[in-house]
Amino acid sequence: MATRKVLVVANETAGGAQLVARIRELAKEGDTSFALVVPQTKPKSGGIVYLEAVRDAAKVRLDLARQTMAAAGIEMEGEVGDQDPFAAAMDAIAEFKPDEVLVSTKPATVSGWLRRDLVERIRTESRLPVEHIVVDLDREGLEFEVTLVVANETVGEQALLDRLEAKAEESDHLFVVLVPQPHGQGHAAREARDRLTHTLAGFREAGLLCAGTIADPDPYVAITNALQSFTVTDIVISTFPETKSGWLRQDLIERVANVSGKPVEHVVAEQQPAGTA
């Protein structure tokens, strides 16, 4: 008997409890494989939209959803899709050739996808069975606690890793790591991406489930954009001590606490990393 393939189309709801529960039900039926497509979403604020960061944000959602499902014993293929969710779904149907499609959205009162008749358009164009799962993140939450971790030059500091390991011991956790990139696309931006890559490797080696992205140079804008892209439980911000930290001089901790309504924890790096100015 041939394996049935299910394509899941989801964005912010990719780790929602209702969606995860439905995928588990399908997996229990046996001979079922899964693929996930996550459309890109541009942030609503920020003076400059970094296209690489937009794609990275979708990649983070994809990685976290796949890690969530892997923790439940379900492996998924996946790809980042077009900014148009219909185009993303149709491209993924052509790529993965599924037998059926599972579309996950927010409730109708807040879902842009439903206002564009996404479910019916996919059903009509693909001629595949399309199931619609409504995920109310405000009511249901996610399968894991999700901490937004914000750091730049201090992102690899031991104090930060120690705190995240402690949080992971307290409860099941996923970590979204955000590294604001300097203005421009030169050497400094490459250094920011390198810091992120090395940090994620170190976090995973320590057993943390994590994914990350570079972001807007303004840390406040980077965080507000991230809060539009990810459903998070709390925020951890890592800085140098007050005498060295431009972020603290901008009252970043208090401003983020006010705008997010989330618990915000401040981790201080005691020493400046070697090689930084």
Task: Explain this structure.
The structure is a single chain. The chain has 277 residues and is an alpha/beta fold. The chain is built from eleven helices and ten strands. The chain has a five-stranded parallel beta sheet with strand order 3-2-1-4-5, sandwiched between helices. α3 (85-96) packs parallel to α5 (118-126).
Q: What is the spatial order of strands in the main beta sheet?
A: 3-2-1-4-5
Shape descriptor reads elongated
Q: Which value, in Å, is the CA radius of gyration?
A: 19 Å
Helix content: 40-55%
Count all strands and give the number.
Answer: 10
Which properties best describe this structure?
single chain, 277 residues, alpha/beta
SSE topology sketch:
Blueprint: E1 4-9, H1 17-28, E2 32-39, H2 51-71, E3 76-81, H3 85-96, E4 100-105, H4 112-115, H5 118-126, E5 130-134, H6 137-140, E6 145-150, H7 158-170, E7 173-180, H8 187-205, E8 210-215, H9 219-229, E9 234-239, H10 246-249, H11 252-260, E10 264-268
Parallel strand pairs: 1-2, 1-4, 2-3, 4-5, 6-7, 6-9, 7-8, 9-10
Quick gist of this model?
The chain has 277 residues and is α/β, with parallel strands linked by helices. It has helices at residues 17-28, 51-71, 85-96, 112-115, 118-126, 137-140, 158-170, 187-205, 219-229, 246-249, 252-260, and strands spanning 4-9, 32-39, 76-81, 100-105, 130-134, 145-150, 173-180, 210-215, 234-239, 264-268. Helix 3 (85-96) packs parallel to helix 5.
